[in-house]
Design brief:
Number of strands: 8
Distance between the termini: 90 Å
Helix content: 40-55%
Strand content: 5-15%
CATH class of the largest domain: Alpha Beta
Largest sheet: 5 strands, parallel
CATH superfamily of the largest domain: P-loop containing nucleotide triphosphate hydrolases
CATH topology of the largest domain: Rossmann fold
Strand order of the largest sheet: 5-6-7-4-8
């Protein structure tokens, strides 16, 4: 009895010593739920899962080793099954995390991705990432909707031999929230980290969601420290993404950042011909389709379905009648502004709103300058489509742009790009 009492007192003394050296919140969250005992001059700390064990080792290993040494003990921190009478908020013994299945496009890899000259660098970077020997720590792909970002990451998935975890941004947010609700958060963390390559398609879905952003930031840091590969996609460059603080933006930009452009006429024509559309029809349609891969796929589906159901060959006359609602018409000023908003990763509501942040003010000025160059709109009309700005505001914006153009080459390139979008 005396021996048992002594052991109990020693265990309480050890835990008191640990509690005095570690922040109370951290002690309650990480140390208290662990199973502890002393056996053969060794202090054993058994965690609920491997993630917890690794975290405790990395964060508190030295403190725990020193405390064990004060009691003339060695220390062993490991993962195992812990049978607690009460389920704690961070205990994932209640049930295991089961990820939702992510749909991946069935393709033959990069041979199915029709590449224009502007996208060759991005495709080469993706191929390098798929091989598993990329020297860059992460790959950030950005481009407008319909430019092929999701298709590229699917090509990586279907080509690589690495263990891949692929999620959409929306799936990460919902699965993270579900893991917190179901008390499977540590299993969720383990699942995301047990891979060689982690892909998040559309990080913009995390914008403004602080808890999800913090979780994903820690995930990126852990993966990079472990030498794992990461691929991210977004509608805009890291420094142009709204809803993220500067720390996360800089982390996004810390690897290789590449942009891809929407399919040009050559790519659109090649996509149509590859799907079985007649060459003369593809030549004509490629000139009338807007620069968006989603629209091209929609037209291909419509033509193929019409041929299958009606048994009628689709020539240009049939195509013109069949696709009248999908072929491009003259762009309206509002459509031009929305296209520029999409390219700059800014919502149309933000441009039309009253916010005067530096980012939005600069974007409005660039759009006004582009509309002045690309259209015959009056200054009053330009102000109306940019959120109801008056004539004086447009004049001021154009003057500011003119002052900066002579010394800012990047600004000139941005305006030229916006002008091309408006034509």
């Amino acid at each position: 009895m005396q021996a048992i009492a002594t052991k109990k007192i020693n265990m309480e003394s050890i835990m008191d010593a640990i509690a005095s050296k570690i922040d109370s919140a951290a002690f309650t969250t990480w140390i208290a739920p662990m199973k502890t005992d002393v056996c053969q001059n060794c202090l054993n700390l058994v965690a609920q899962n491997q993630f917890t064990a690794d975290y405790v080792k990395n964060q508190y290993g030295k403190i725990l080793t020193d405390i064990a040494a004060d009691f003339s003990l060695n220390i062993n921190i490991c993962a195992g099954v812990v049978n607690n009478a009460v389920n704690l908020a961070n205990d994932n013994v209640v049930c295991e995390y089961t990820p939702n299945k992510t749909q991946t496009t069935q393709n033959n890899g990069f041979s199915d991705f029709i590449c224009c000259d502007e996208n060759m660098f991005a495709v080469a970077a993706c191929k390098k990432m798929a091989m598993g020997n990329a020297s860059f720590s992460q790959l950030f792909i950005h481009g407008a909707n319909g430019s092929g970002k999701s298709l590229l990451v699917d090509c990586i998935c279907n080509t690589t031999n690495m263990r891949v975890v692929k999620m959409s941004g929306g799936q990460f947010v919902s699965d993270f929230a579900r893991a917190l609700r179901d008390k499977t958060i540590f299993s969720f963390k383990d699942f995301c980290r047990k891979c060689d390559l982690f892909i998040l398609d559309d990080v913009c879905a995390l914008a403004g969601k602080r808890a999800s952003c913090d979780e994903f930031t820690q995930l990126m840091i852990d993966l990079k420290n472990a030498g794992k590969n990461i691929v991210l996609t977004a509608n805009g460059a890291p420094n142009a993404l709204g809803g993220f603080d500067k720390r996360i933006q800089s982390l996004f930009a810390s690897g290789l950042v590449v942009d891809i452009v929407a399919p040009n006429a050559f790519v659109r024509r090649s996509m149509l011909i590859k799907s079985g559309v007649d060459t003369d029809v593809a030549n004509e349609l490629s000139k009338q389709i807007t620069q968006n891969g989603h629209v091209v796929n929609g037209i291909i589906n419509k033509i193929n379905t019409y041929t299958e159901l009606m048994g009628e060959h689709v020539n240009m006359d049939v195509a013109a009648r069949l696709l009248g609602d999908m072929l491009s018409k003259n762009k309206t000023p509002i459509a031009m502004v929305k296209t520029m908003c999409e390219k700059m990763a800014i919502s149309f509501d933000e441009i039309c709103g009253n916010s005067r942040t530096r980012r939005l003010t600069r974007a409005r000025q660039i759009m006004m300058a582009a509309l002045k160059c690309a259209t015959n709109l009056s200054l009053t009309e330009i102000g109306n489509v940019c959120g109801g700005r008056d004539h004086a505001s447009v004049v001021y914006a154009l003057n500011q742009i003119e002052k900066q153009k002579s010394s800012d080459l990047i600004l000139n390139a941005e305006i030229d790009e916006m002008v091309k979008l408006c034509k």
